[in-house]
Write a structure and sequence with these properties.
- The strands form 2 sheets. Strands 1, 2, 3, 4, 5, 6, 7, 8 and 9 form a 9-stranded antiparallel beta sheet that branches.
- With 309 residues, the chain is of the alpha+beta class.
- The relative contact order is 0.11.
- A hairpin with a 5-residue loop joins strand 6 and strand 7.
- The chain is globular.
């Protein structure tokens, strides 16, 4: 009994000393326990940090856009039936666009008309759009008229020279925001055959990647952890023939970053592992790749030209 007493007294004194130190230190705070899931969490951006600019490269011209003059097609696309119902006395480009979610879901814009004409909190006033045209040396801006549906426009292209491929884009003038680029090549609808000299036109081809996942859930490990087998395939496209979105009916095939955009694809999303201008090929918009008079034999004219020469 006498041997245990000093031990009890020392323990009591140490406990009293610790309590005294804590009570006299008014600035002391016990450490907080940080939940594991918050250790690496990114801070949630505030409304002041959100990007309020007018977005670029979120508008893509669709393949059913046409150029018409007095009921005839004036660009190298399948526009004969469309233009037959258009009797404009001026050469007119009828553009249809595909909008990304950044525009569709933004209440400031919603459609092409809003993207072109809605004032936003960027210090600019009277926003408006023009069709920027470049032949590689000179740049001009053409007036455009916006369609009532918010996904189309028209522009007078009478000033464009024949048989020259122009690079074009819709550009909002106050911010400089722009659509994805596209090509316009005007032809003479009454000049059925053009004996063009020189080398065939060439165009760059871009390469991208698609991944086909075969996944199965492993019940022996935590949820959402899968055993994955992936097959990678490369695909190619030219600027005047961009790839369409992967249909939602095709499962486990992704050609876009699904971690950023989700599992549903859109033709406006960047392709995986995109390598632009990977190599060059002949440009199918060269008029010699069409079937026109004087041959008109259901073959591209280039075949007849090679045989004749």
């Amino acid at each position: 009994m006498s041997k245990k007493l000093p031990t009890i007294i020392v323990t009591f004194l140490l406990f009293s000393l610790q309590s005294c130190l804590l009570s006299t230190n008014s600035d002391y705070k016990s450490p907080s326990v940080i939940p594991y899931e918050f250790l690496d969490a990114e801070p949630t951006p505030t409304s002041e940090e959100e990007d309020k600019s007018r977005p670029s490269n979120e508008i893509t011209l669709t393949q059913n856009s046409c150029g018409c003059l007095e009921g005839k097609a004036i660009i190298l696309d399948k526009c004969d039936s469309f233009c037959a119902a258009k009797n404009s006395p001026a050469a007119t480009f009828y553009g249809k666009v595909l909008l990304s979610e950044k525009i569709l879901l933004d209440e400031r814009f919603v459609n092409l008309n809003g993207w072109c004409g809605q004032e936003i909190d960027d210090g600019q006033t009277n926003p408006n759009c023009k069709l920027e045209i470049s032949d590689g040396e000179d740049v001009s801006n053409l007036d455009i008229n916006l369609g009532s549906g918010g996904q189309s426009f028209t522009a007078d292209i009478s000033t464009l020279a024949l048989n020259i491929t122009y690079n074009a884009a819709i550009v909002e003038q106050t911010s400089g925001a722009r659509s994805n680029s596209f090509h316009i090549r005007r032809i003479d609808p009454d000049y059925y055959y053009e004996r063009k000299e020189g080398a065939l036109d060439i165009i760059p081809v871009s390469r991208y990647l698609c991944v086909n996942f075969t996944a199965s859930l492993n019940s022996s490990i935590p949820p959402d952890v899968y055993s994955i087998k992936a097959i990678k395939r490369h695909y190619y496209y030219s600027p005047n023939d961009r790839p369409p979105a992967v249909p939602s009916s095709i499962k486990n095939l992704y050609c876009h970053n699904k971690d950023v955009h989700g599992s549903v694809d859109s033709s406006t999303y960047d392709r995986l592992a995109l390598k632009e201008s990977d190599f060059l090929i002949w440009n199918k918009t060269d008029i010699r790749f069409t079937d026109r008079a004087p041959f008109k034999n259901e073959k591209p004219n280039i075949n007849d030209i090679i045989q004749k020469d």
